[in-house]
Amino acid sequence: MSETAARRRRALMRFWRDYRAQRAGLYGAAILAVFVLLALVTPLVTDPSGLDVTKATGPKMAPPSAQFPLGTDESGRSILLMILWGSRVSLLIGFLAALLSMVIGTVTGITAGHFRGWSSAVLMRITDWFLVLPSLVLALVLAAILGGGTSTIILAIGVTSWAATARLIRAQTLAVEARPYVERSRVLGAGHWHVMTRHVLPNVAPLVLANTTLTVAGAIVTESTLAFLGADAGQASWGSMLRGSYDWGAVTSGAWWYVLPPGLCIVAVVLAFTFCGRALEAVLNPRLRGVA
Amino acid sequence: MTAPIEIEPAAGPAAGPEDGRGARRGALGYALAKLGGALLSIGMVVVATFFLFRLIPGDPAIAYTRDVPLTPDQLTLLRRQMGLDRPLPEQFLDFVARALQGDLGTSYEYRRPVAELIGERLGPTLLLVGTGLVIAVTLGLWQGTRAAWNHGGRLDRFSTGISLTLWSVPTFWLGLLLLMVFAAGVGPIPGIFPTRGMEDVDAPDGPMYLLHVAHHLVLPCITLVAVVYAQYLVVMRSSLLDEIGQDYVTTARAKGLRDAQVRRRHAVPNALLPTVTLVFLHIGLVVQGAVTTETVYSWPGLGLLFYEAIKGPDFAVMQGTFMVLCVAVIIMNTLADVLYHVLDPRVRSA
Predict the structure, then answer these.
(1) pLDDT above 70 coverage of chain A, percent
(2) Which residues does the UniProt record annotate as the domain ABC transmembrane type-1 (chain A) (predicted)?
(3) pLDDT digit string (tens) for B239-282?
(4) Are B223 and B205 in contact (CB under 8 A)?
(5) Cα–Cα distance between A16 and A138 in angstroms, integer?
(6) Structural domains of chain A in order of their starting residue, each with its CATH number
(7) CB contact (8 A) between residue A136 and residue B288
(8) In this complex, do A225 and B1 lie within 8 Å of one another by their Cβ atoms?
(9) Digit-coded pLDDT (tens) for A162-173
């Protein structure tokens, strides 16, 4: 058992060495660490009562000042405070939606790749259907029908974004199952469950990890777009802040402090996730290793 | 926006188990198989729509007529009209039969048939999406070609950076920024473009009207182009990079052709094939871009109609627009598949 642990540690060290060589991936990870840290300490150092429209103390739509470093919104709330609390909502929805999408995609992909015949054909038919449909439109309809709330938004994004993952995982599953040791294991009497969880899953896991990182980026953009189009989680997120800035005419009255910070946060986090995902892909995908 | 920027070979038009079999059956059989697949997908859209919109909590009759005060008698009558008093399978068949006849229900918000509303909004959307696509495809393919031909160079790194950034920027935020800078104006710079809509109330007549609409079109069009063109750039770049390593390119060079000739006459035509079809395959992305762009600029198209229905909520309009958008995307995808098959002899003989 200790030998396994040592082997795992060696593999982890090797992974870290390879990842460190990816400059963009390191920057991405650093940016993410800062945002996650801020999101975690926000409830410890700030008072959420400032988010309440009725308890806001500042002047309305005021430009940045010493008291309000990023200015205030239409009802006198601090933009900085809303950004900090909004990061919690945006990141949480991004992570959980990507997790849901990954689970659906991986299970569908492995199942469709492992079993042949009609069940696989049906699964791929459904996958292709989801791949083709405009996912944002479907997510909007889902959110509108199921009513607001954080879990609804997570569900709407997760259910509409897994198809590309499933395609990818299925292709990888087919490649893994063609290897001789899987055939050997099957000849020795391994069942479907054993092959899928003991041989296929560990082999597709790195790909799943890289793919999920990219999915989080997509999920955060989708969340903000949904919030802007009116399907928000009922809590202030970066997307719903931008909705507010649009509704209250910050765009046309030149209140840049209400429009720029939330958008820049979205772009920074999404870019960071994309950099991390691409770096992971370069490290973990043997096909890309020589190229990158 | 949620589509990964890297195009996996598995997601390409030539992938999938059914394609191999289709190829052997010949072009007509292939087209028929694809057509069958498209009809199945459309059928799935209709079924999904029917059951999705039955998930609405509460009484559909009340949900659909939101804000319209109704007496109990009127409500009973409405339920009968909507077929809510009949069993579910019967309601479903009725729904399908109506959809086939182009009857998408009635909007109580507008007090008009949904199909009529959609027909009205189709023109502006086609104008916006059509103009945007032509510009995005031209720009994307041109820049993608240049990036791949000098890959690793400054232009290549610049293009890759631009496309990565554009991919991370939410469409609506880009729209807000453009609105703020070019429509409202920043500091001493006055706004030079209109902030909303396709035409003003005092729009001029005759040829000046076209100019008037074009003036309104500029910002929405730039936003839409920015969303989709990066994808085309990336696809064209990777597709051309694949070709550069091929033997026939080396041969073309070896027989003494100039660099531009090798590119224009040999490599680019081959690289164009997968790219052009991917343009069609990614039409879902364009639809999403249109919904957000039209919302930001209040462009009176299908996307804005859909957004207003979501905001209402006006379930009848939502349901109708949803089906129309999905079916349009499926049709474009099928066209792309068939087109690829017709254009690429390698797939045909495979």
Answers:
(1) 97
(2) 87-277
(3) 888 888 788 888 888 888 888 888 888 888 888 877 877 777 77
(4) no
(5) 39
(6) 2-288 (1.10.3720.10)
(7) yes
(8) yes
(9) 998 999 899 889
